[in-house]
Specification:
The complex is a heterodimer. Chain A has 26 helices and 28 strands. Classes of the chains: A alpha/beta, B alpha+beta. At the A-B interface, strand 3, helix 2, helix 7, helix 8 and strand 10 of A face helix 1, strand 3, helix 5, helix 6 and strand 8 of B.
């Protein structure tokens, strides 16, 4: 992005050459304290790694247990990773890792890890495989791909990814194959947030300056446990609160650790964050606390018209939907607007609902109308830093694919991946080869049972391949398994806007890959070379690199000032300064904490896009350079271009009365601070802490239902039920039940408390701790009973909207019983499609667009 | 002279458990025992519920050393800088399993907060040594190194220039509970008063695996079940 790139260049110039870090501390200071940070590392003098019994070497890397991409240092002894620590040179991470990052060696030395290629021998799902050679595996995969390519229908190759951090290599692989059927996993995450933000100010994420703010109004983000960017942001939230006395208010339906450590927790009924935010905006405007000059100059909608639009959203109306008392809405709104600087933050809470994109835009209004955008301590644009792609890139598929550019969701630019199995079953796209990378839809997606069903069906999915090195519910449906290296054994370029300073980092092998694992980039190359051995198909030329390092090195060739060998030693670029043990902050040459730059959009420049008072300014990443409170792109398809609240039609009648009967509630899910969805349950130190997922139920509700802590309950949705244990708590909305979605796997000996016993089946060495497992495995996966519906705007799964009833378990019910009816899943998927802009409910939900002629659905539009 | 001291700032702790895992990795602590851990407790009635974190760790009170001395060869002892460490060679060399067990059992029994335990793989003691092997190299303990909230301040309280000395002098840091065990080496800032009484402290003791298995201790909050 132009803006962020320019910002980096400025900072680079200001800081001069990167500051060398040497001699982290002297002997006399050795016993001084460090508030975290100084203990890192350390080569004292020449001998690298003077820690404990000593290490042979220390290798920097970028973490990939979740997607925050923290900088780390791996301590290696005798070829084995002994310890991981945060990289003290990393401007965002500042020497620290979270629990998951600290436990990362569990991914390398997972006793159930797959360490050589496998070919399925039993039925799909049975987990029965035989070891085969890489030659055999590559030949079989290449032959299947070649057949499809030669048939002239490359879109029958479906390329699916989740946590792909290959820096474009997987996309290059897809394009080389000539298919357009590329499916990500973003709709299971925050895509509606992105579609809210992109239409408003350009970028799809914000980077609040938590460290310097005075007020944080957090809508549905669990920033102290997970979310983007947990470790770097949590560091700065604590700084802002402990050192700057910032107030933290969290709007959430569940008492997450973030809500539980906030100054105030506003418990909200799911899917109503938007009306709370709109009511707050209304109060701010009508109390005269808005920055009308900012609104008039820097947004595309006049303050008086905005105030008039907001009038309908009274705090009393918001209370009716959300349950948040009108007095609290009024009070928090006035506080937020009276304290400067202030920021909001969101993640999935507001946006994982039908019409979630509206909700994101409603929350964004708060920093916008108070003039808190792009300022020190405010609500700021992301700071990214780019890297390139090697030359000779493939062109990619020529025909659009229904699955990746579905006509019913024209605004869903991040795709609608969770509806894909339904579309495949409906025959919208034939799949001859399915290629899976870093995603486990048959376990982690809503309607996971439907994924399992279609992936098991050899008529629908003829040939399934994965690069996974972990056997799980999804891997077990694959025909060939080509095991990737772990994240500590491969090359990737990295960059994330995880603090106010842009950076690039690398992932590099800290040890040689175990067993026969080959990093995925090398496997792509082997496959392409096998399909096109002499280059006559024009595919091979895109894959002429020596190895992973050669490929990734080329990607950084355009980054000015980056020296490859130094980069490999530092792990990150640029280095802004030295971690100051006294503050835990990065100090510049003057010994003071480095400061970030703010306000790029407000810089006057002759080629600026934004016209304010006859002058040109750099502006925001929108067409007119202004913040688009009025989103023209929404209007075209009959959506409301203004931030509005559309009460979920499955929860509410049009007159505002509740549709839910007395015993119905909303099922929501969440992430633990020690787990991601599918890759951590077999990491022993994490699973020792959290190994099951009882359903959180409000104490008052539990009393009404007659259930006690630990009792078995049945949670029944429109598609089936699960039987699980209940955790009774005061920390959840009375009409909400929360079940985390990490547990319930039947694979992995740590994950299942060694129920399967025996030895590792796929080449990994055993862990003596297996015999010390003391917990019971009681996970129950809720994803099978969560229907797949999509936000008609952003396309995100309305994951936190599921209507359920909760009852005591019936006689004969056993913990873990799961029943999910595919036909009913189909019914609810179709019900959800009725709200798409092509559906019969669209204009009913948007009476303001009645009479509009809407564009005809077309493939490939808006994607 | 040095006096190695922890100040645990509960106002900065986010309960992320990075410390817990860093300690396990640094010290090869097997499943079932811990040297440090974040224990959480929920208080209040809906919708005024809150969550509190307690950075549970050995207070270096020395009761285990005294018990070790009284019931064996004194393999557990306090170093001049205050850290209570285990001399595994002294504990085991030329001694019967029964002698070793007697000494270890006495030390376990003597600990008021359950921070002295037995390694299930070796049968030998597990206790927090403030990562003495790191401290001797000039490094902070692994838990403090990785602490996301910078909620663990570590250093020499006798050095007036140290951060720990500054914080002790300028905050309301007070000795770790229970605070009747002589000279304190671990202090807390902002630990919720409701959680520091002795009754509540039971919930902070070394997790008894049977309590977790039976559900007596809730894995979600790590606090004792029941209301």
């Amino acid at each position: 992005m132009e803006l962020t790139r320019r910002r980096f260049m400025q900072i680079g110039a200001a800081a001069g050459a990167t500051v060398a870090v040497s001699g982290l501390f002297s002997e006399t200071e050795a016993m001084e304290v460090e508030l975290g940070g100084k203990g890192v590392a350390v080569d004292k003098g020449a001998g690298i790694g003077s820690k404990g019994s000593g290490f042979d070497k220390v290798v920097p890397y970028t973490c990939l247990v979740c997607n925050i991409e923290d900088g780390g240092l791996a301590y290696i002894k005798d070829g084995r990773v002994k310890k991981l620590e945060g990289n003290d040179k990393h401007v965002s991470t500042r020497g620290r890792l979270c629990a998951k990052g600290n436990a990362g060696i569990g991914h390398v030395y997972d006793p159930d890890r797959i360490l050589y290629p496998l070919k399925r021998t039993g039925p799909r799902g049975s987990g029965q495989y035989k070891r085969i050679s890489w030659d055999e595996a590559i030949s079989e995969v290449a032959a299947n791909l070649k057949k499809v390519i030669d048939s002239g229908h490359p879109n029958e190759i479906m390329v699916h990814w989740g946590r792909d951090r290959s820096g474009g290599a997987y996309g290059r692989f897809m394009k080389t194959l000539g298919t357009s059927t590329g499916i990500n996993h973003t709709s299971t995450c925050e895509s509606s947030k992105k579609i809210g933000m992109e239409h408003t100010w350009g970028p799809d994420i914000e980077t609040p300056d938590f460290a310097n703010t005075k007020y944080i109004l957090n809508f549905g983000s669990n920033i102290l446990e997970a979310a983007y960017f947990h470790n770097p942001y949590a560091q700065r939230v604590v700084e802002g609160r402990a050192e700057g006395h910032a107030k933290l208010v969290t709007v959430d339906c569940r008492l997450s650790n973030t809500a539980g450590r906030s100054d105030e927790w506003l418990s909200v009924f799911p899917g109503t964050d938007a009306v709370v935010a709109l009511a707050m905006a209304n109060v701010i405007m009508s109390e005269g606390l808005a920055d009308t000059e900012f609104i008039n100059n820097w947004t595309n909608y006049p303050a008086d018209k905005l105030a008039a639009h907001l009038k309908q959203y009274t705090p009393e109306m918001a209370e009716k939907y959300s349950g948040v008392p009108a007095a609290d809405i009024r009070r928090i709104a006035i506080e937020f607007a009276s304290v400067k600087p202030a920021t909001v933050y969101t993640y999935r809470g507001p946006s994982k609902h039908l019409y979630g994109s509206y909700a994101e835009r409603c929350v964004m209004l708060l920093p916008i109308i108070t003039g808190n955008v792009e300022k020190k301590g405010g609500y700021n644009l992301p700071r990214g830093m780019g890297y390139g792609q090697p030359g000779d890139g493939p062109k990619g598929g020529s025909e659009p694919s229904f699955l990746s550019s579905h006509p019913d969701y024209p605004l869903a630019g991040h795709k609608v991946s969770h509806l894909v199995p339904f579309w495949i079953k409906e025959g919208k796209q034939k799949v001859s080869v399915y290629i899976n990378y870093m995603t486990a839809p048959a376990y982690t997606y809503p309607a996971a049972s439907v994924w399992r069903e279609v992936l098991s069906d050899e008529n629908l999915f003829k040939f399934n391949v994965t690069f996974s090195n972990q056997m799980n519910e999804n891997t077990a449906l694959m025909d060939i398994i080509l095991p990737d290296g772990s994240y500590l054994e491969r090359w990737d370029p990295e960059s994330m806007p995880s603090s106010a300073w842009p950076w690039v980092g690398i992932r590099q092998p800290v040890i040689k890959p175990l067993g026969e694992a080959i990093e995925v980039r090398g496997v792509f190359q082997k496959i392409i070379h096998k399909i096109d051995p002499d280059g006559s198909k024009g595919m091979k030329k895109s894959w002429n690199f020596k190895d992973g390092e050669d490929y990734v090195k080329q990607q950084f060739a355009g980054v000015k000032g980056l020296d490859w060998d130094k980069f490999k030693k530092d792990g990150v670029f640029p280095i802004y300064g030295k971690l100051d043990p006294a503050t835990g902050k990065i100090a510049g040459k003057d010994g003071k904490p480095i400061t970030a730059q703010f306000g790029d959009p407000y810089k006057e420049t002759s080629d600026g896009k934004a016209n304010v008072g006859g002058k040109k300014y750099a502006g925001f990443g929108t067409g007119d350079g202004k913040i688009n409170i009025y989103a023209e792109g929404y209007k075209k398809y009959g959506f409301n271009p203004l931030p509005v609240f559309k009460a979920n039609p499955l929860h509410w009648n049009m007159d505002g009365s509740s549709k839910l009967s007395g015993d119905q509630m909303i099922l929501t899910t969440f992430k633990w601070n020690v787990h991601v969805q599918s890759r951590t349950p077999n990491v022993k130190w994490l699973t020792e802490m959290v190994h099951s997922n009882p359903a959180w139920l409000n104490a008052g509700t539990a009393a009404k239902l007659g259930v006690k802590n630990g009792d078995l309950i049945r949670i029944t949705s429109g598609v089936g039920y699960i039987v699980t244990k209940v955790r009774v708590t005061e920390g959840i909305h009375p009409m909400v039940i929360a079940v985390s979605n990490t547990f319930g796997t039947k694979f992995g000996r740590f994950a299942t408390a060694n129920k399967m016993g025996g030895e590792g089946q796929f080449g990994a060495g055993d862990d003596p701790d297996l015999k010390n497992i003391w917990w019971k495995s009681e996970g129950v996966n809720p994803n099978y009973i969560i229907p797949a519906m999509a936000d008609p705007i952003g396309g995100s799964a309305s994951w936190y909207d599921t209507v359920v009833t909760v009852t005591r378990a019936q006689s004969g019910d056993n913990l873990g019983d799961t029943k999910a009816d595919s036909a009913k899943h189909f019914d609810l998927y179709k019900e959800g499609m009725r709200y798409a802009y092509t559906g019969d409910k669209h204009l009913e939900m948007h009476p303001e667009s009645k009479g509009m002629s809407l564009p005809k659905p077309e493939m490939g539009k808006g994607h | 002279m040095a006096r190695m001291t922890f100040v645990m700032d509960a106002t900065r702790c986010i309960g992320c458990q990075a410390c817990t895992v860093a300690c396990k990795a640094e010290n090869d602590v097997p499943l079932g025992v811990w040297r440090t851990q974040i224990r959480a407790k929920e208080t209040g009635k809906y919708p005024n519920a809150r969550r509190h974190f307690y950075q549970w760790i050995c207070a270096q009170c020395g009761n285990c050393a005294e018990a070790s001395s009284n019931n064996g060869v004194g393999a557990v002892s306090r170093r001049p800088d205050g850290i209570v460490v285990v001399d595994y060679e002294k504990l085991t060399k030329g001694r019967s399993k029964k002698q070793i067990d007697t000494e270890v059992d006495a030390a376990i029994e003597a600990c008021p907060i359950g921070a002295f335990s037995r390694n299930p793989l070796t049968g030998l003691p597990e206790k927090c040594t403030q990562c003495a092997h790191r401290v001797d190299q000039g490094l902070v303990p692994a838990c403090a190194q990785t602490c996301i909230g910078r909620a663990r301040i570590y250093g020499d309280a006798d050095n007036p220039k140290s951060e720990v000395a500054r914080v002790l002098a300028t905050s309301d840091a007070r000795p770790a509970p229970p605070n009747d065990c002589g000279d304190p080496y671990v202090f807390y800032i902002g630990l919720d008063g409701r959680l520091v009484d002795r009754g509540a402290l039971e919930g902070f003791a070394q997790v008894k695996t049977e309590d977790l298995v039976s559900g007596k201790i809730n894995q979600v909050t790590n606090s004792l079940g029941g209301k």
